[in-house]
Design brief:
CATH topology of the largest domain: Outer membrane efflux proteins (OEP)
Radius of gyration: 40 Å
Number of domains: 2
CATH class of the largest domain: Mainly Alpha
Helix content: 55-70%
CATH architecture of the largest domain: Up-down Bundle
Shape: elongated
CATH superfamily of the largest domain: Outer membrane efflux proteins (OEP)
Number of strands: 11
């Protein structure tokens, strides 16, 4: 069992704030891992873009569902006037026609998703004043007319376009939701990596400050000894060099810290002028990861696999569309209604006329020079390529799970070694510091022990961070949290919205 080790960052932050770059009176934003993830959910640019894309597909789905309901429309032509000179072949004479009219059509149209038909009820009301002059004689007609009819338009020998369009939009929306959930997981991985990178930079700065304190203390010891003629000046020069190197190292760590802050602020969506600092307690508790369970969970719950299923269904729909292109098809049109006309509006239906209409039409392609056959073959090749890619993706998922599980087992041993190495390096440094004061060691040797201690501290912290990152990777790869022993349900936009409303 690895001993639980808390790296309390509070003292480090106090040390860091005392020596960090000047930031004026501006307050620092202190963030824990949970706060960083929560902040990124609303401000990360990639998440915002993914959420907007999902909202766009959601609105398309809402619009498509609305289009399947009854549509009401009103077309008006309040004024129309025309005058024309035409030849009447029946009487072999020219005549002049003048027409003044006003009309409007009200329609109720209902798409039928089950058969891809369209049923509509239409009412057209018009008034016209028509004059025709032939051979000096003028004939005039002023009357109202109204046509009320019910029509049905039914495609035959083809696929259901209404249903397929609806399914396409539903799949696009589902795919967008999955992409958003995957983006959240990717952002969590990225933020975790950047968070620990910033935390490591803060640790390195604290270690460099500790190095500088030791170098200053050792320099003062050697300086006093040289002034008392107890040691040679070459030791003084070496101590002076060690002090200069420690100061240079501290400045380098400060620069690295500021760069790490900028990188972290970018992934979070925080303005670059803000000053931030991260706080966390790291503990190295080994987690048992069952390889068989991890592999089973990865191959059954990964969201990418559902995206593959959606893509496969879209491929099948695309094949249907390709096969229907330039193929035999038909259409049935039915219309039944009445028409009436009269100079007086309230008598327009005194003598109505039935207006039935039935029409059947076919589209029969004769020869397309092999274009349709080539398109079908191209679609079949594309489908085979997709299936090969799907098989390789399954292999890639399994390989990633295997690799991550191996890394976790290896990192457990590395943490134990790094912890022991840090403990031994601290004991070695404490023993040799006393020998250095007694003049038994040179400044160059003491600097080597200092470097050994600093490196062991950084290695131990890095080993723990690597283990935590790999635990997050196995959680994302398998959608199962082995630390909590429960499946991971990626947060969708709707869940996030409901949470904010509450």
């Amino acid at each position: 069992m690895i001993k639980k080790k808390h790296l309390l960052i509070t003292a480090v932050l106090a040390l860091t704030s005392a020596t960090a770059f000047e930031t004026g009176a501006r307050a620092q934003m202190v963030l824990t891992m949970e706060q960083a993830l929560e902040y990124s959910a609303e401000h990360n640019p990639d998440l915002i873009n993914s959420r907007m894309s999902m909202e766009r597909y959601e609105q398309n789905l809402i619009a498509q569902k609305a289009s399947l309901k009854s549509r009401f429309s009103l077309n008006l032509e309040p004024f129309s006037y025309s005058q024309s000179r035409q030849f009447d072949s029946r009487y072999s004479d020219w005549y002049t026609n003048r027409s003044l009219s006003s009309s409007g059509t009200f329609s109720i149209s209902q798409p039928i998703i089950w058969t891809d038909a369209t049923l509509s009820l239409n009412n057209s009301l018009s008034w016209q004043n028509n004059e025709s002059t032939v051979g000096g004689n003028t004939n005039t007609n002023r009357a109202f007319s109204n046509r009320l009819y019910l029509s049905l338009n039914q495609p035959i020998f083809t696929y259901n376009r209404t249903r397929m369009n609806m399914r396409q939009i539903e799949m696009n929306y589902e795919n967008a939701r999955i992409s958003y959930a995957l983006q959240r997981l990717n952002v969590e991985r990225n933020i975790t990596s950047q968070f620990y990178s910033l935390f490591m930079s803060q640790q390195n700065l604290a270690i460099s400050e500790s190095e500088l304190e030791n170098a200053e203390r050792n320099f003062n010891i050697i300086k006093d000894k040289v002034e008392a003629d107890l040691t040679t000046k070459d030791e003084y020069y070496q101590a002076e060099l060690n002090l200069a190197q420690s100061r240079s190292s501290l400045e380098n760590q400060r620069v690295s810290l500021e760069n790490a802050k900028d990188n972290f602020k970018q992934v979070l969506g925080i303005p670059l002028e803000e000053d931030i600092i991260v706080v966390c307690d790291i503990e190295a508790e080994p987690v048992i990861v069952d390889f068989d369970k991890a592999l089973e969970s990865a191959l059954t719950t990964r969201l990418e696999l559902r995206q593959r299923e959606i893509s496969r269904e879209q491929q099948e729909m695309s094949m249907i569309q390709v096969k229907d292109n330039d193929s035999f098809s038909g259409n049935i049109s039915l219309s039944l209604g009445i028409m009436g006309d009269n100079p007086e509006f309230n008598h327009v239906y005194d003598n109505p006329t039935n207006n039935p209409r039935v029409a059947i039409s076919f589209s029969v392609p004769l020869y397309d020079w092999g274009a349709r056959k080539a398109r079908i073959k191209a679609a079949e090749i594309e489908r085979k390529m997709f299936e090969l890619s799907a098989e390789e993706e399954l292999k890639s998922i399994e390989m990633n799970v295997r690799s991550t599980c191996r890394s976790l087992d290896n990192l457990v041993g590395q943490i134990s070694i790094a912890e022991q190495s840090q403990r031994n390096a601290q004991l070695t440094y404490d023993l040799n510091e006393e020998r250095y004061r007694n003049g038994e060691l040179t400044g160059l040797q003491m600097n080597q022990f200092q470097n050994q201690l600093s490196n062991s501290k950084m290695s131990y912290t890095q080993a723990i961070i690597n283990y935590k990152v790999q635990l997050l990777n196995i959680k994302i790869l398998t959608l199962y949290d082995f630390e909590k022993g429960e499946p991971v349900v990626p947060i969708t936009y709707e869940q996030n919205t409901d949470k904010k409303k509450k």
